[in-house]
Structure of Ribosomal protein uS12 methylthiotransferase RimO:
Amino acid sequence: MVSLGCPKNRVDSEVMLGLLEDAGYQLTPEADQAEVLIVNTCGFIDAAKQESIDTILEMNQYRETGQLKALVMAGCLSQRYQQHLWDQLPEVDAMVGTGEFHRIVEAVEGALHGSRPGFWGEMPVSGMERPRRLTTPSYTAYLKIAEGCDHSCAFCAIPQMRGGYRSRPLADIVAEARRLVSQGVRELVLIAQDSTIWGHDLYGHPQLPRLLYALQEIPDLLFVRLMYSYPTQITPELVTAMRDLPVVAPYLDMPLQHAHPDLLKTMGRPFRREKTERVLNMVRDAIPDVTLRTTFIVGFPGETDEHFAALLDFIESMRFDHVGVFTYSPEEGTRAEPMGDPVPDEVKQKRRREAMLLQRRLVSSVRGRHIGRVMPIIIEETGTTVSVGRGPTDAPGIDGVTYVRGQFPVGTVVPARISGVKEYDLVAEPV
């Protein structure tokens, strides 16, 4: 399997691999040895779409150079462009959308027997006690707590591909978390299109703090990390749970997209800079050591130099630990599509570089506030004199790392005192 896109897609891939393994299929990391190849696609932006199509065409070459008998296309691109891709990609022997990836065994069986099946329904999120073959390191796993999205951001096509927001029941999530921890997982990364609204459709209002308290009861769990939070749902109750529960990492990922009120309104983001600053200050007052991650979009239709200057001012004044900046890509079917793409690409790229250079100038001093703190570091790479790991300040795959003096086995947790900063990374001494 080739899994593209976000961690939510990765969890779907792991479930598909688990289902196939349970059905008797032998998994191989070698594409030229596989009789069945699955590409779990991403359809979020144009570059991701092109990568997905290119990967499918690349994998199809193993019909000539490998053992390939069936090529299966899964994921967001399959869901979004069902019939069009079905007609345009004769190389594909079966197709599975995001709503029915649990039918992957049926799809593979059908593909191998020449029936060319396709599945695109909407999958229920309850009762998801399905097997998973983890593709992350043994000590880290993503835990999907909801599917779909109800927000109407003008730039985003996620609701077209994933449907409306559906929370997984509390019992399902906790049961899966316990299974993962029993297998050796020490860090659970909570993911959804909006993690902070979890439970509102099941219990009448968001209940993320309730979920965090339930996860706190799992023995041997080191970190629970919150990703994809939404500013309007960062409540005092949630912040109190983050502060008081030892298992919850002092880490909050909150994609903000912009800072200028005109752009936020056009983007369909239901909050303004003043409200966001109050939320961020509330979090920092309660949890002084909190790590804050965010992402921004530059080049959205109508963004002027004044709008961009406001964004730079916001980045400089709020001093985030981690910042990602993306250039706007128009997506068909979104509310922003009729606006066109008036900001030239060279302007978008220039603004992105300028924003990232600003964050690069700020990051050493921002990260420097951790010097002197003792943190638990999960070792990810071992060396003869220095090991590489991550603590509560860094999410897997997207943030920095911590260099710990000494040789430690991969997967062990080492208490270490932060002694220095190396741009985006930290340097530590074992305690």
Q: What stands out?
A: The mean pLDDT is 91.
